[in-house]
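--- STAGE predict ---
source: upstream dedup step, 1 unique chain passed
mode: sequence only
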Amino acid sequence: MPEYAALTRPAAPSRPSLGERVRQLRIAHGLTQTDLAGDRFSKEYVSQIERGKTRPTAETVAWLAVRLGVDATFLEVGVSASERERVESVIARAEAAIESAEYGDAVAAVSELAPALASVAAPELELRAVLVESWARMYLGEVRKAIELLDRARGIADAPSFTDVERADVLYHLACCRYKLNSTTTAVTLYSQALELVERSGLPADRLRSHIYEWRSRCYRRQRDWEAAREDVERALELAEGLNDRHTMGHVYFQASLIAERTGHWVLARSYAEQAKGIYEELRDQSNVGKLLNELGALNFQLGKPEEAVDQLKEAFKVLLDVGDDTDAARVISSLAQVHLRTGKVELAEEQSRQALDMLQGRVDHLDEIGNAQLVLGRALLEQERLDEAEEHFAAAEASFDQLSSASHRAAAWIAQGDLAGRRGDDRRASRLYRRAAEALQDFHF
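--- STAGE serialize ---
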């Protein structure tokens, strides 16, 4: 993965004050203070402006700017309106790249702005730039770098000129990074704090609220709190539909599909997945179309349609490779490995799970899929009676799942280890592992 230069804001160069700029421009035009004042002001008033003894009104600044041949924005802050517009244009282009999942392009565009941001001295533009870069870096796997940027964003947004909605947006971005690093409890807390800030503000922010609910539902899904996950998905969908925000609706239907799948409602899950896929096709979002094809392939396999499942997974792999989404392409390979394992093609399952692990190497933000691929690889080796190798990969899967704090994932690793113990004739160890898995999957402990 390429490394991109961080957006580090250099110390702003000292610039003349408004009064100093008036004096420099007056002298450059060969005018005396009397000449500049004309019939409108006295020489003494111009002198007070130049010495910083009085602050002219916006109307006066505009009048002086015309007399001195510059735009009012330049006279006010030392930066022309055209330069500010250029910075805004680059940030808007980076934000559009985020919407198109072109994360490298977003980082590259924003990184070029560091000197300009320092000269423009516009905190609201700096905040937008930092949020864009942090989101892009999160998806590029540079999650800790994204968190460093967001720590700076919090400092910017703490200024009185920003609203609670903008502070909530920073917390939302930070929560997403924490979710990617598997700090699920911390992420839930941050999402909830963000929602509280939005509600306290009294400002319209339904799009942000919808995004927060959708991402918090992912946390609840990981924690197996299905009811809370469903409630957040319903809230997110209601808000997105009210805004006619098709992209967010696609994301929410995708999450609804995953929740239905995890709770065994496969037909309902497929219905949600098809709705999400239809929206992404309408929006020409090929990356998410590929992800939905992966989900539909898994669901069709669960519904007893292995051939249809394999076709959809192969199509998903092609789509994701075409858009350069290697990480999600690796997820598809892992899904194919699971299908081939469960249909008895263990050597192919071994090959594909190893390929998935190679593609996911170093992606700590995808520990769930790394653990799943390790588990499939271990089971493929177990079926080939390569017991010591299987044990090694089951242990690796357990270690990956430990970092997720997910009981269901850890239970899957313990069941696999129990199967290995049974294959070795160690029934006592197998029994202990099965019981451990069963207890972990209980919703309540007495």
